[in-house]
Amino acid sequence: MTRKDFIAGNWKMHATHLEAIQMVQKLGYRLEEADYDRVDVVVCPPFTALRSVQTVIEADYLPIQLGAQNVHFEEKGAYTGEISPGMLAKLGVGYVIVGHSERRHVFGEDDATVAKKLRAVLAAGMTPILAVGETLEEREADATEDVIGRQLDAGLRGLDTDVVAGLVVAYEPVWAIGTGRTATNEQAAEAIGFLRERIRASFGDAADATRILYGGSVNPGNIAGLMAKRDIDGALVGGASLDPDSFASIVRYWV
Ligand code: PEP
Fold it and tell me: Active-site residue numbers?
């Protein structure tokens, strides 16, 4: 089973809508048709820039896909400050990150909340990118598999096999996010291999279709080594995705 490469840029709380327009235009100039044939290229700007980025993508016929960084699980109601799945879908958003470590650890989202968000994203016809990952203390306590296995199970429990096949999962060790400290290729491949086998245990061959990314201080210098690992299907990129030159180099990791 071949899985198409998937590289997503998580811009976090960076870029006004005007800056975001420039960023996506510059990225568009740097990528070629053949790059998109090989890689699904996704950008996840802040909510306030989604509409502007979508307009550029449409107007310039860019094969760049749009993602969101977060979502609320209810469709509408008295949830001041929140954004619903339907609002995102209407903007042409195809992917939504759920369970990012900053949502879990800074904003206190637990597995149950992440699971509700994941289902709400699916119900609105979009694809969740389920992020899982252990803290440094958990890794040092040899609890990596317990933690990421639990986070994965909570997110996927009860889903249909064909839905799981279409999901994107991102293994993002918390200690590697925004720290400049990347997991070694072997550490990343080991955790991702574990996640794939965990999916297989519940969903059978769907595990061969689910794309599983690595995230954590990915940059143009380390992406090729990560992508050389059979089980690593792509990357969720934070800091290095803010610079269109470096993000384009990551997308074109084989060049
Ligand atoms: C992320 O935000 O998901 C991430 C991996 O960030 P960084 O690449 O900056 O570590």
Answer: 100, 172
Unique residue bearing structure tokens 């009860």: 158
Tell me the CA distances in angstroms from 37 to 34, 201, 244, one per residue in order: 5, 31, 19
Tell me which residues have their CB closer than 6 angstroms to ligand 1: 10, 12, 172, 177-178, 215-218, 236-240
| Single-letter amino acid, residue 49 | A
Tell me which residue has its CA closest to atom 3 in ligand 1: 238
Spatial distance between the Cα atoms of 210 and 3, rounded to a whole number of angstroms = 8
What is the pLDDT, as a whole number, of residue 180? 86
Q: What is the mean pLDDT of residues 145-155?
A: 98
The model's pLDDT over 169-209, given as tens digits with 9 standing for 90+, comes to: 999 999 999 888 889 999 999 999 999 999 999 999 999 99
pLDDT confidence of residue 181: 87
Residue ID of nearest Cα to ligand 1 atom 6: 238
pTM check: above 0.90? yes
Determine the atom of ligand 1 nearest the C-alpha atom of 235: 5
DSSP state string for 30-76: H--HHHHHHEEEEEE--HHHHHHHHHHHHHTT--PEEEES---SSSS
Determine how β-strand 168-171 pairs with β-strand 211-215: parallel
Q: How far is the CA of 203 from the centre of ligand 1 (A)?
A: 28
Minimum CA distance residue for ligand 1 atom 4:
238
Task: Tell me the CA–centroid distance for residue 174 and ligand 1, in Å.
Answer: 9
Percent of the chain with pLDDT over 90: 97
Mean pLDDT (the chain) is 97
How far is the centre of ligand 1, averaged over its atoms, from the C-alpha of 154 (Å)? 22
